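User: Can you predict the 3D structure of Phosphodiesterase? Sequence below.
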Amino acid sequence: MRKLVWLTDLHLVEQGRDWPHGIDPLARLRYCLDEIRALHSDAERLVISGDLIQIGNPGAYGILRSELDRMPMPYHLLTGNHDNRAALLASFPELSSAEGFIQGVEDLGDMRLLYLDTLAADGKHHGELCPIRMRWVREQIRSADERPLLIFLHHPPCDIGVPALDRLRLFNSEELGDLIRARNGATHLFCGHVHRNASGLWAGHPFATLKSLHVQFDLDVTGSGLTRSIEPPGYGIIFIGPNEIILNYRDIPAL
Ligand SMILES: [Fe+2]
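Assistant: Sure. Here are the predicted structure tokens for Phosphodiesterase:
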């Protein structure tokens, strides 16, 4: 089986800055990358689905670059609501795309990996796909034909049942849903942003969300504000076979 490794919501900070929630995000990232080097060095890609830095810490992209450049496999980065495209591109110029967004597509064997940029134009915390991005997404999904398609995006396109998180999901996801619903080939969405593991069906195909490597948010089904959870951090290992896509969730110690 082919193997991918998936991380999300690192929330790295610049040297000397306060740690969000009192948790050292770099210590957790280093633990995770060490484990991946030891156990999953055969993964074909390492994907990080956004919130690479804590908002207002653009210098942290340089820290991320030096950590990732020690990994044996190629990596791909997405934007989240805490990210800054210009600062991200300054450290990772290879992520630039003709459309001006941090979005990309890769064909790995007979499967297509699609990396979306759902950062809102107004810098707010919900997600969006403007008409320019939607046109590109439409072309990539249609030209995938019936090949397996794995779509990575920061903001989930649907609710997960936690009101404080659901109000910050991808807005106006109907067209994306129509494109996915029309597909015949295997399709799976992988989303960050909610700092929780959740999975289900949307637009006729499976989706999963993933724990942050940093703080977790609680399964608070009534509150209107974000509540921190005691759950440990984690990441994902994705196996792809001829007729299956399998996500394994892996916790790491809450350093
Ligand atoms: Fe986040």
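The mean pLDDT is 97. Residues 3 and 188 are 15 Å apart (CA to CA).
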